[in-house]
Amino acid sequence: MIHSGMPDVIFCPGKTTEQIISAFLNIAEKGNNVLATRADEKIFDALIRTGRLPRLKFDKIARTIILEQKTFEHSVSLLPIITGGAADLPVASEARATAEIMGHNAEIISDVGKTGMYKLVTQLKKLREANVIIVVAGMEGSLPSVVAGLVDCPVIAVPTSVGSGASFQGIAPLLTMLNSCSPGVSVVNIDNGYAAAVCAVMINKKLETAKVESVLSSHF
After folding, report:
1. Could you read off the pLDDT of 2-32 as tens digits, one per residue?
2. Are 64 and 35 in contact (CB under 8 A)?
3. What's this model's pTM, rounded to 2 decimal places?
4. pLDDT tier at 215 (50, 70, 90 boundaries)?
5. CB atoms within 10 A of CB 44
6. In the CATH scheme, what is the code of domain 78-207?
7. 15, 59, 64, 61: which is closest to 35 by C-alpha?
8. Domain boundaries in the chain?
9. Buried/exposed code over 138-163 (b: 16+ C-beta within 10 A; e: otherwise)
């Protein structure tokens, strides 16, 4: 059985630095993996200054702080994370960091929106080998529908708050994705790379477990 590898998660906005440090240390003492999302360098520095967390990793783009104390068997298949533009990278990077702490191989394929569609075509072989794909996009949010029309696996769409005033801080791409006529598209909340990654990893690991069990049963 492939372990889900779910870390304990701290959502940093709305919490004081002291509250975050207290929660982080309490979780770490139990030996669990810890993932802090929407974190900044000040929080990371404060955690380092406690002297109790020497193995911390901070990803400035993803805005994540990770403490890995347990390792899990890595997935066989790759999780592609596609972005419409470079401005979507913070959300895509949060998804990648989440997938990796859960023992999953993930790769960001960046800047393949409407003006970079030729880049998407060059990645089709890789995308069609995936069990599930995450697509992160702002503006009008049509990229997940395009991707879903080219592959035969679930597509998890993540609307971002990137765009002009008419995108209404992500509401426009959210509505576009919810109204997608492409089959197999599911949508998470605005800027929620974490939720998309957890869902994708669960789907993929369930499929990998089923495949292993099928192979084992065929030998008996």
Report:
1. 345 789 999 999 999 999 999 999 999 998 8
2. yes
3. 0.89
4. low
5. 19
6. 3.40.50.1970
7. 64
8. 8-67, 78-207
9. bbbbbbbbbbbeebebbbbbbbbbbb
